[in-house]
Design goal:
The protein is an all-alpha fold. It has two domains: 11-282, no CATH class; 313-365. 81% of the residues lie in helices and 0% in strands. It has helices at 2-15, 29-38, 49-52, 55-73, 78-93, 121-193, 200-308, 315-364. Helix 6 (121-193) runs antiparallel to helix 7 (200-308). The longest helix has 109 residues, at 200-308.
């Protein structure tokens, strides 16, 4: 059964190749009967028969395409790609290196030498919480988009299968039309060979009908070729949707959990590092304080001992003050003696002046 199906599928391209060329020599009598039945609507006496030829198939195809486009408009598979980009933007917003600046607030902030370690951890992790919430929201959208992408592919597959059916219908119409074209061409040749037996308009009408049929067949071949191209295009869109869905699934199931896990480890490691640095700072500062206190205690003890061994007033000070007192007494004595001597001289001079004054007063009288 499987072999027969494959054989029947290989016959069709021989009868009608991809360029629309029909090989009528490969048509069996049974098939010829079927095709003539399809093409019996092509009557030269009906000017609209060419216009209506294959219209039912085309209308059906157009209706399905419109229905499909309407359903696709409700969801754009490209949205998943946009959501993935939005998700990566959120992930790039996380700077794990920023965690290296974290420290501890509270009592550590009161210690001057630890101020450089202290940052606003609360605000920092609030930002990470916001990013994680955004990531969760986008992840849910990606999950929904993935399902829509799969659903979209299902619709595309239905369209693919329908297009295959429409292509077969179009091929039957083309082959039937080609049979009719050859039949009418033979008839036209006979009429042109016996023009006396026919009216001129009959020959002209048939010639015009055959020409219009040829154009109609050419149009149908173009439509068939476009539909063949659409099969490849549908497959490309389906493959793209599948890739997007797989990428979304990979991000949701692998990337996000790994990222959250690594972020948790990074936070824990940085907190651990901050603890070690804090302990080292405290240890270093304790050693520094102990060393400085020991040095100060040593110096203070030496100074106190030295001062305790000294008398209240040193002998040098006593000698200096005694000598100063002696010098003061001697100088005062000399000043007193000089004053007494000056007073004795003054008394003598005053007596002399008094005697002289008396003498002069006596002479005047």
């Amino acid at each position: 059964m499987e072999t027969n199906t494959n054989e029947s599928q290989t016959i069709a391209p021989v009868k009608l190749d991809k360029d629309g060329n029909v090989n009528l020599t490969l048509i069996t009598p049974e098939e010829e009967t079927k095709y003539k039945e399809i093409g019996k609507s092509l009557e030269p006496s009906d000017v609209n028969s060419i216009l209506n030829y294959g219209s039912d198939a085309q209308n059906s195809m157009e209706k399905y395409s419109n229905d499909f486009l309407s359903s696709v408009r409700t969801y754009n598979s490209g949205e998943v790609g946009g959501l993935i980009n939005e998700l990566l933007t959120e992930l790039n917003y996380i700077d794990v290196g920023e965690l290296e600046q974290t420290g501890f607030k509270g009592f550590l902030s009161k210690i001057p030498f630890l101020k450089n370690l202290v940052v606003d951890v609360k605000k920092l992790f609030q930002k990470y919480d916001v990013v994680i919430n955004n990531v969760d929201k986008i992840t849910n959208k990606v999950k929904a988009g993935r399902l829509n992408s799969i659903k979209d592919n299902s619709s595309l597959q239905t369209m693919f299968d329908s297009n295959v059916g429409y292509i077969h219908q179009m091929e039957d119409l083309i082959i039937s039309g080609q049979l009719k074209y050859d039949e009418l061409s033979i008839k036209l040749t006979e009429m042109e060979g016996r023009p006396a037996d026919y009216q001129d308009y009959e020959i002209a009408d048939l010639r015009d009908y055959i020409s219009r049929l040829d154009k109609r067949l050419a149009d149908m071949k173009i439509v068939r070729f476009i539909m063949l191209q659409s099969l490849a295009q549908i497959r490309i869109v389906q493959n793209n949707n599948t890739s997007i869905a797989e990428k979304a699934q990979s991000i949701v199931s692998t990337t996000i959990p790994v990222w959250k896990n690594q972020l948790t480890l990074a936070v824990a490691l940085q907190r651990q590092k901050a603890n070690v640095e804090m302990q080292k700072k405290i240890s270093d500062t304790t050693n520094t304080i102990l060393q400085k206190n020991a040095d100060m205690l040593k110096q203070n003890s030496i100074d106190v001992a030295r001062e305790n061994e000294k008398t209240v007033v040193s002998i040098e000070t006593l000698k200096m003050t005694t000598q100063s007192l002696i010098d003061t007494l001697n100088e005062v004595k000399q000043i007193h003696e000089a004053g007494a001597q000056s007073r004795r001289v003054l008394d003598g001079e005053l007596k002399t002046l008094e005697t002289e004054l008396k003498k002069n007063v006596t002479r005047v009288n």
